[in-house]
Amino acid sequence: MKSVTILMVEDHKLLRVGLRSLFDETQDIKVIAEAGCGKDAVEKAKLMSPDVVLMDIGLPDISGIEATKRILSNNPEQKIMMLTSHVDEKEVIDSLSSGVYGYALKDINTELLIMVIKSVNNGAIWLDPKIVPVVREKSNCFIPQKQNSRAAFRAQHANLTEREYEVLKLVVNGQSNAEIANTLTISEHTAKAHVCNIIQKLVVDDRTQAAVKAIKEGLV
Questions:
Q1: Inter-residue contact 66 to 80 (CB < 8 Å)
Q2: Is 103 helix (H, G, I), strand (E, B) or coil?
Q3: How far is CA 146 from CA 143, 218, 219, in A?
Q4: Are the beta carbons of 134 and 89 closer than 8 angstroms?
Q5: Are 60 and 106 in contact (CB under 8 A)?
Q6: Between 205 and 8, whose confidence is greater?
Q7: What is the 8-class DSSP label of residue 78?
């Protein structure tokens, strides 16, 4: 399987080193370039044509939002996702308006981050659960309004068991199978089985898409 190539844009060298170490251990993702500022990111995106640009917002020259706009003006098909600590309402909305495919916070579970990058590369849009309330309140164009109740969601997906609902909410929160097992006091094998069942029942391809569908349809 072809690796997803990424340009990593982050001004803190220590974090870049940590992320590169993480991705070096992942066969499916390959860092082909790094940038410590926005202008450098624009040039390297144009030169290297990565599959996904992993962009921070707070950069020392131009912001990640402005860099995103410039990258997309050069290549409208470029997939960009924010990886940031910023949860400011305006920055969240401006980021999504600029054309990013994903918005993840830096405390994201590493296993989930890898899955999100792959999902974005495949054209999916992913929002960190922590910013969904901001997006839902301020702009209907990014994510549908929450349904009236959990019962409405269950009416559409009645084949999910009570335990699977519990597991799905933990998946939305970014927990790995091991963390789910620890939270619910079950074996990791059982947690994995529940996740597989959820993916099948929601008719999605992976746990990331299951989380996105749960958010969009009002479970969280």
A1: no
A2: strand
A3: 9, 5, 8
A4: yes
A5: no
A6: 8
A7: -
Phi first, then psi: what are they for 56, rounded to 5°? -90, 155
Check whether residue 156 and residue 72 sit in a common domain.
no
For the cut 60, the answer to whether the pLDDT of residue 169 exceeds it is yes
From the list 89, 83, 199, the residue with the least C-alpha distance to 137 is: 89
Inside any domain, residue 144: no
Rounded CA-CA distance 215/207 in Å is 12
Answer yes or no: are the C-beta atoms of 19 and 8 closer than 8 Å: yes
Residue 175 CB partners (closer than 8 Å, separation 6+): 109, 183
Could you read off the pLDDT of 43-57 as tens digits, one per residue?
A: 999 999 999 999 999
Closest C-alpha to 51, from 69, 78, 19: 78
Q: Count up the domains in the chain and report the number.
A: 2
Place of tokens 């091991």: 178
68 & 43 share domain: yes
Tell me which residue has tokens 């981050």: 113
Range of the domain at 154: 150-216
DSSP character at residue 80: E
CB 9 within 8 A of CB 80: no
Residue type, position 113, single letter: L
Query: CB–CB of 162/168 below 8 Å?
Result: no
Mean pLDDT of all residues in 148-174: 72
pLDDT tens per residue, range 90-128 = 888 888 888 898 899 998 888 888 888 988 888 878 888
- Residue 47, classed as helix, strand or coil, is helix
What is the per-residue pLDDT for 216? Answer: 66
